Fold this sequence. Notes:
By secondary structure, the protein is α+β, with helices and mostly antiparallel strands. The protein has five domains: about 1-25; about 30-130, 2-Layer Sandwich (Killer Toxin P4, Chain A); about 145-275, Killer Toxin P4, Chain A (2-Layer Sandwich); about 320-405, 2-Layer Sandwich (Phosphorylase Kinase, domain 1), CATH 3.30.200.20; about 415-545, Transferase(Phosphotransferase), domain 1 (Orthogonal Bundle). The chain is about 35% helix and about 20% strand. It has helices spanning about 1-30, 50-65, 95-115, 160-180, 215-225, 230-235, 280-290, 320-330, 365-380, 415, 430-450, 505-510, 515-530, and strands spanning about 35-40, 70-75, 85-90, 115-125, 125-130, 145-150, 185-195, 200-210, 240-245, 245-250, 260-265, 320, 335-340, 345-350, 355-360, 390-395, 400-405, 450-455, 465, 470-475, 480, 490, 510. A hairpin with a 5-residue loop joins strand 19 (about 465) and strand 20 (about 470-475). The radius of gyration is 30 Å and the shape is elongated. It holds the Pfam family Stress-antifung. In the N-terminal section; belongs to the leguminous lectin family. In the C-terminal section; belongs to the protein kinase superfamily. Ser/Thr protein kinase family. It is found in: Cell membrane. It is a single-pass type I membrane protein.
Amino acid sequence: MVITMISHKLSCYASIIVVVVPFLARLAASDVLWQECDSSQNYTANSPFQSNLKQLSTTLPTEASSSATLFATAAVGAIPDTVYALTLCRGDTNNASACNVCVSNAFRDAQQVCAYNMDVAVYYDPCYLRFSNQNFLTSIDNTKRHIMPNGENVTALAATFDAAVGVLLAAVADYAALNDSSSSRYYGTGVEDFDDENDVPRIYALAQCTPDMAPADCRRCLEGIVKVMPKHFSRRQGGRILGLRCNYRFELYPPFSGAPLLHLPAPASGETPTTDGVSSALAFTLVCFGVWSSRRHQRLSSLPYSRNWESAPSINLSFLGLSTLEIATENFAERNKLGEGGFGAVYKGALPDGQEIAVKRLSQGSAQGIGELKTELILVAKLQHKNLVRLIGVCLEEHEKLVIYEYMPNRSLDTILFDPEKSKDLDWGKRLKIINGIARGLQYVHEDSQLKIIHRDLKASNVLLDSDLNPKISDFGLARLCQGDQSKDVTNRVVGTFGYMAPEYVVRGHYSTKSDVFSFGILILEIITGRRNCGSYNSEQSVDLLTLKP
């Protein structure tokens, strides 16, 4: 009887142990945000794999915490008992011992919550770890990721909030990816002012990649998880995506230590950014606000990316999906091509509502073209004048870089002015109208707009004509922004079109608003005479207009 009772109690205790021990293991590892346990392959106690794992648990925390990047990978043992491991501490960790402790705890907890599993990943707020019997170290795959939304929702200005989060995440992703320092942690943080009146004064975000990735791979990895933000975190006050190769987080409070590395101002009051083609919108942010990326040897914290242009109007563009533009241009059909320049082609298209557009398609791999695209988006999107070409939207999807402008039926001035037949339609009244319109556009960018801009490439082919022959200055890819009261500057890289450039700019690199006025003077002579200026084109029709005598 007694033996029977003891046997029954032992059986009950065994049942309790089976249930409670795993629970206690998870309780001991309560700081784990997420664990991934692959139970398809297991090791046994005292096996060579466990011995190799034990060795790694001793060496890898020290390697990571002593590294400037707080990152380490290793492989220990011979196949089939090799243990491959990767660990990364968060980029704002300034205490090496804290990184060491986190990684050490990760090894301990991984063997508790995923006991005897050979492929395990554990994530904490300050670090994460993965080890496996399969070599994953050469792969930058980030498809195994965990979505963690904040349980609270934003009630006011929800659509604007989601768009603002997208802008901030893309900006922080750029910062993380484009820091070229050899000791870079591929880590970025930022804050964006939002709306004090609705108890959402600021939005904070961080992003990070493993430092063994190339900058472009890091940016692609982050873009892959940023673009799904609307799907998983719409109207959420915060959220994070955990991945082995890259991750991000946003909250209404700082989820990081120290001051944010970026500070973005609030969206303009009452504006709700268009969200058609969300991945385009987020990719656009990297271009639109990534001015500093061409200055690849400067510290990012000192660059003008902070978007701290309080006096300038906020950018307000539509973000169009690639499929929309493929339909609009009939898949970029050759018959719709309006022209082709050094950095790509321009196509005519029509949106579903019937609006005609011109789509500039940047050639893939054109680094210089990307730099000019950034400049144009930053400047033209902030300029509004009847004599400047209107920028409608942008799309950057699937390696395409597309900018959408209003369509000008009469194309560029040079196609009419220098054509023996078409130029006959330009009577003196129309020529004067074109000259006056160009002058008004120049006055606006030089004096009347909140941004003082020097175009640096004013010429006949960069003046577009609408159906009524109203001129609109276009192509601001070479333009320069003058800060404050600055009206002149010096450059070591002279760009533009010979024949239109002022002598002091060609010889000494000095440019100013007067440089544009010189180009305008040449353009006036061309409009009056109908002849190309010598040096601006390789043509038998060109003459040296500056030496012409009445």
